[in-house]
Amino acid sequence: xxxxxxxxxxxxxxxxxxxxxxxxxxxxxxxxxxxxxxxxxxxxxxxxxxxxxxxxxxxxxxxxxxxxxxxxxxxxxxxxxxxxxxxxxxxxxxxxxxxxxxxxxxxxxxxxxxxxxxxxxxxxxxxxxxxxxxxxxxxxxxxxxxxxxxxxxxxxxxxxxxxxxxxxxxxxxxxxxxxxxxxxxxxxxxxxxxxxxxxxxxxxxxxxxxxxxxxxxxxxxxxxxxxxxxxxxxxxxxxxxxxxxxxxxxxxxxxxxxxxxxxxxxxxxxxxxxxxxxxxxxxxxxxxxxxxxxxxxxxxx
Length: 301
Prior knowledge:
Blueprint: H1 9-36, H2 39-56, H3 58-65, E1 68-70, H4 77-90, E2 96-100, E3 107-110, E4 118-122, H5 123-128, H6 131-147, H7 149-172, H8 182-226, H9 229-243, H10 248-254, H11 283-297
Parallel strand pairs: 2-4
Antiparallel strand pairs: 1-2, 3-4
Helix pairs in contact: 1-2, 1-7, 1-8, 2-7, 4-6, 6-8, 6-9, 7-8, 8-9, 8-11, 9-11
């Protein structure tokens, strides 16, 4: 079902290319491991089952990990009201609505398709944002659902785990045949370690590049839907500033969700790391893009 969110050809092409490259990467990796050791077959079967479970139950897994729960319109009338207006404006199915009882101000969307999607906000973000800012954040998250990049990121992010999992099976699964082949075994182990490290590094960079672009695409799509880029920029500024004051221990607990969050759960120190390793574009870049869009739309301050 199409929505009024304008298709983003740049995002679509990047999702296709990233998926294709990751697919080639892992087909070659698995083929090599199967040639080297029979243990890889079992690893592939188990990893495939895990990937299927994560894809099929991604919404439940994410909510459980973030201590989120589905809320009814009676429990959260304001939140439901904002999402109802945005879904009507975008002409898209309304996702389930959830709240996570954590102080970290953030939001994320999950689910394998628009009909099974969930948009979750934290109690921390509800306390900090006004209605216009919250609307901007939710429009951003709904664009992820409409563009279906949530499902692509779920699969792409999981594939990075596959290299390590298969390597463990290779190392501890009796590869190489027997004890009399110590030299051959050492060569096989070294080959698997080096290849798996390369596969992980390449997949890591591919998924990070896709993640950064999809955030910029969602910023633009969400701001276009509401017609108020300044409200989204205000929300970004406020959330990023408050996240910097969250204790590092709490941020580390949420790091696994950074690729899906509206704003990354990192302290100010993390911003200095290379952009190659970031799940989100720099805050300044997102604000600059929204400023340009605001001028294009003729929005008044």
